[in-house]
Design brief:
single chain, 235 residues, mainly alpha, 12 helices, 0% strand
């Protein structure tokens, strides 16, 4: 891993203020132009930036600075880091275990049906397949199309839910909102809406019917009451 200087401009400010190094030496070490280093020394550039001590960060040693101050032709060299940071591996095609490769067509079919917004490259990243295989499954020309069944790639262990959500979110950005026709909803015509009776009116009519029945029952009971009293008087 190539060593790089941390915060070169801040380091140049510290070297200008705390060492007797030449502008060329500081410029060479900090990957700056000598005129920019001169502007820093004159206070015309990098105002408001706090200097960074390269000795405390382990990027330079005092002996190295002393050698460069004694010899104007000496080029400063970065100190060897105490901790080696491993290089990040370049992401290539996703590796799929042999035992799960037979499930990839089912996972592709599930993605094609449930997430049509995904591009072929995104599906390829998720399940580790080729674009030709995806096209065959889309067009139902795959050699095993008759036996394929859509299955969630997360359940199959071909990808994680986080990766799937990220790809779906990327594919959904910039897409227009679905129209009413796409959602399967249509507006009713004015004639149909005029024929509809509001629900609250229907409820009121229902209550009126119920109240009328109660009134008739009450009246019938009142009529039968005097007759019963007359019968009692005869006895």
């Amino acid at each position: 891993m190539a060593q790089t200087l941390l915060m070169p401009k801040a380091t140049a400010i510290w070297l200008v203020d705390n060492t007797a190094l030449s502008f060329d030496q500081i410029a060479q070490f900090c990957k700056l132009h000598p005129l920019e280093v001169k502007a820093i020394a004159d206070g015309e550039a990098a105002q408001g930036i706090k200097g960074l001590d390269p000795i405390s960060t382990g990027q330079l040693s005092r002996d190295e600075i002393a050698r460069a101050e004694a010899n104007p032709n000496h080029k400063l060299k970065l100190s060897e880091p105490k901790v080696r940071v491993p290089e990040s591996k370049r992401r290539g095609p996703r590796y799929t275990p042999v035992s799960k490769r037979q499930d990839r067509p089912n996972a592709i079919l599930w993605l094609v049906r449930n997430h049509p917004e995904l591009k072929d490259a995104q599906i390829s990243r998720l399940v580790g397949t080729t674009k030709s295989t995806i096209e065959q499954i889309r067009e139902r020309t795959h050699w095993n199309s008759a036996n394929l069944a859509p299955m969630d790639p997360v359940t199959l262990g071909l990808c994680s839910q986080i990766d799937l959500d990220m790809e779906v979110e990327k594919a959904s950005k910039g897409r227009p909102l679905p129209t009413a026709a796409e959602l399967g909803a249509t507006l009713q015509s004015a004639q149909e809406t005029e024929r509809l009776t509001p629900s609250y009116e229907r409820e009121e009519e229902k209550e009126k019917e119920i109240d009328a029945d109660a009134v008739f029952r009450k009246l019938s009971s009142l009529r039968s009451a005097p007759k019963d009293e007359d019968d009692d008087d005869q006895y």
